[in-house]
Amino acid sequence: MYAKFHSIGAYVPSKVLSNADLEKMVDTSDEWILKRTGISERRIAKDGENTSDMATKASKLAIERAGLDISEIDLVVCATVTPDYFNMPATACIISDKLGIKNVQAFDISSACSGFVYALSIAKAFVESGMKKHVLIIGAEKFSSIVDYTDRTTCILFGDGAGAAVISATQNKEEAFIDVHASADGSYSDFLMTPAPGTVNPVSQKVVDEGLNFVQMKGNETFKLAVKTLTKDVKDILAVNKISSDDIPHFIPHQANYRIIKAVGDSLKMKEEQVVVTVGKYGNTSAASIPMAINDIWESGRLKKGELMLLDTFGGGLTWASALLPFAGESK
Ligand code: UT7
Fold it and tell me: I need a labelling partner for 256 at 20 to 30 A (CA). Which of 34, 35, 106, 154 fits?
């Protein structure tokens, strides 16, 4: 049994937070943000619009586009670091309930920006082992809930959104995943973190006073490691599978910073039209970034059935992952 990437869906909140808006909130400028990150605007979920709400909308589309009935989904995996509730229940359980999926295994994974590709590796293993047939994987984030909008080094980067895909069983090797690599190095855990809430810093007055619930990032150090790791990771997966970067019509890297995307694309000698860039309009949406980007090129008609995708991601943990696979759904 093989696993195939059966369908894609996404949800983008309607509220736009532009660089001009941020200029009124912190000491920054449109020019600085654009030059250093390539970001013009990002989307922000409404009050009361939670991670599970965005994820449910993206999932409905993915299931519908796979031509499946809700009752055929037999596993739900949600990748998020901004769950509806920090301890329990898992956001995947809430999404299942909102979708009307009953009595099906559902759990969250916490791999920050690498979450969607990590979820892909989990779905692949479940499907190839014959344990599940149609796995719903989701990357969804309400990052605005953990961003300190007085910190100019982080608030300019992040946005909200959700993406979902159905990974299904197939016996046709032509449409199967080629390879997925996923890895981590916890010695860099302080590069990108939210210090609270958790067992190290349970909720307390100190947490509130010191803003320990907000995301903290060693931006420049993370940037350098991201370029190095993302480049090595894709070079490795291409070499192992004896595929040239020229043969990849869609290189879909994590959307953290345009300068990172450009540096990785250039070192792979990718042409501009091979590299998918959505960071300018969505910012960094963490686990949602890759599925939102895949959805964008599918909806615009750029991603066609059978075409190869190379996914490459990097994030808190630190974690990183890459995947090489054809899009096995119908073209738009
Ligand atoms: O998703 C997971 C992976 N995430 C990433 O890979 C993110 C990686 N990091 C980055 O994207 C970049 O490091 C940033 C965009 C966060 C920062 O860009 P940078 O080129 O690394 O800038 P920097 O941190 O070295 O700061 C340069 C200067 C500093 O001022 P001084 O010390 O030179 O006077 C900062 O204080 O820019 C200043 N600065 C800003 N100025 C205007 C930092 N943030 C801002 C801002 N507006 N928003």
Answer: 106
The atom of ligand 1 lying closest to the CA of 260 is 6
Structural domains in the chain, CATH included, are 2-173 (3.40.47.10), 179-326 (3.40.47.10)
Q: How far is the CA of 312 from the centre of ligand 1 (A)?
A: 22
Let me know if 113 is a catalytic residue.
yes
Pairwise CA distance, residues 255 & 236, whole Å: 20
36 lines ligand 1 (CB under 6 A): yes
Angle at 225 between CA 10 and CA 258, to 5 degrees: 45
Residue 165 forms beta bridges with which residues? 8, 137
For the question of whether the overall pTM of this predicted structure is more than 0.85, the answer is: yes
Report yes or no: 118 and 317 within 8 Å, Cβ to Cβ.
no
Percent of the chain with pLDDT over 70: 100
Per-residue pLDDT reduced to its tens digit, 137-179: 999 999 999 999 999 999 999 999 999 999 999 999 999 999 9
Looking at residue 113, the DSSP 8-state letter turns out to be G
Which whole-number Å values give the CA distances from 238 to 179, 272, 319, 322, in the listed order?
A: 9, 19, 19, 10
From the CA of 157, how far away is ligand 1's center (Å)? Answer: 10
Q: How far is the CA of 217 from the centre of ligand 1 (A)?
A: 10
| CA max distance for the chain | 57
- For the Cβ of 289 lying below 6 angstroms from any atom of ligand 1, the answer is no
Mean pLDDT of 219-225: 93
